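no rush on this but wanted to send it before i forget. theres a chain ive been looking at and ive put its sequence and its fold in token form underneath. i want to understand how the tokens follow from the sequence so walk me through it. thanks a lot i owe you, the record is right below:
>
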Amino acid sequence: MTRTTGRPARPARTTLALGAALLTLAGAAACSSGSGGSSGGSGGSGDGAQGGGTYTWWDPYPQHDDSSDWAGRVDKCGTEAGVTIDRTAYDTTALTNQALLAAQEGTSPDIILLDNPAVSTLAETGMLTTMEEFGLDTSGIDENLLAAGVLDGQAYGIPIGANTLALYYNQDVLDAAGVDPAAVTDWESLTAALEQVTGAGHKGITFAAIGTEEGSFQFLPWFWGAGADLRDLSSPDAAEALELWTGWLENGHAPNSVINNSQNTTWEEFLTGDFGFAVNGTWQVNSAAGADFATGVLPIPAQEGGAAPAPTGGEFITAPVQSDTGRYEVTKQIVECMTTPEGMVETATAFAYYIPPTAQGQQQLLADNPDLQPWVDAVRVARGRTSDNLGTDYPVISEALWTAVQKALSGAAGPADALAEAQATAEDELG
């Protein structure tokens, strides 16, 4: 839960390095944005700071129109603060670019919800207030989830929820192959399970290795599960993770289609009922429940056992710098409404796949939805892609990584060579 700790200081407005920052973040790997344009009004300062008026809100959910539960959730927080919220919804990539342009023009909205890797992009330009400046206490937020919005020790937003990856399994296929899912605890036992599944005439595992951010997103649990570090793509640990994937293709445990699979096409493959396992996310919980076969969920195993850290998806609520700092008091009320434990459970319910980022919120969610326990467990050990102060270096590193994965899976280069080239490319681009 966030609490007001004092009146926000007026943040210093810095010169925005928009030439560097106005970039296209590569794809939304695990957030709920969809295709489409914008709805609602344009960004701006709105009408007045106290006693009513209009406050502007941008989010990456164009698929949720004004009649949706999500729109009602946003409006409710405006009503509680005594104001009207003018909501605009953009595609994820368009939202980041539009936010940077608005900052340049001095028309930033009062609140922006951002896909978590984009927070550092905006923060580096100086267009976001820190949560400390804004007078909000983030100590109750799970540290591993908050980290995606931290740059140089300062939090620039609060996660409204998180999603991540795990292993879905087809219970019917595993039963037919004599596989106990509880025995899958590390890479060795998972590969043994795949051998049993394919030996019984079924397909082993499907995942998304497409040459976009989704490919990196799905590879990271294996990369981190081997002990690899994103600052060193060419490490032996990284090579072992990529060798795991290439070995599955070479041995027929995974189909060649994974090279072009998005997370959606991966899920379509799993729903055919032919596969024992699929790597996918919290957002497929309802779809899995409606499948024509019994399903279950396991954490993605680390190489030597235990749950591997999976990357976090989901959005942060942020507060852009305003010339009229008198608006901040109401903005804080709106942010607090969105980030109470009860509010985060409402958000989780509205989206049906977000896990609250606080222990209290998670407990409240599980009280009504105990089947979500595996996802709560996965989120608790998840890791932000821009954590460890990677910030805006992450997109460069990620592109180099997914390029290496593509080369290795296609046979254009061996895993170690592909990753060595990726490291050299990242170092050249980052200087």
Q: What stands out?
A: Residues 81 and 333 are 6 Å apart (CA to CA). Residues 394-410 form the longest helix (17 residues). The two ends are 40 Å apart (CA to CA). The first strand starts at residue 54 and ends at 59.
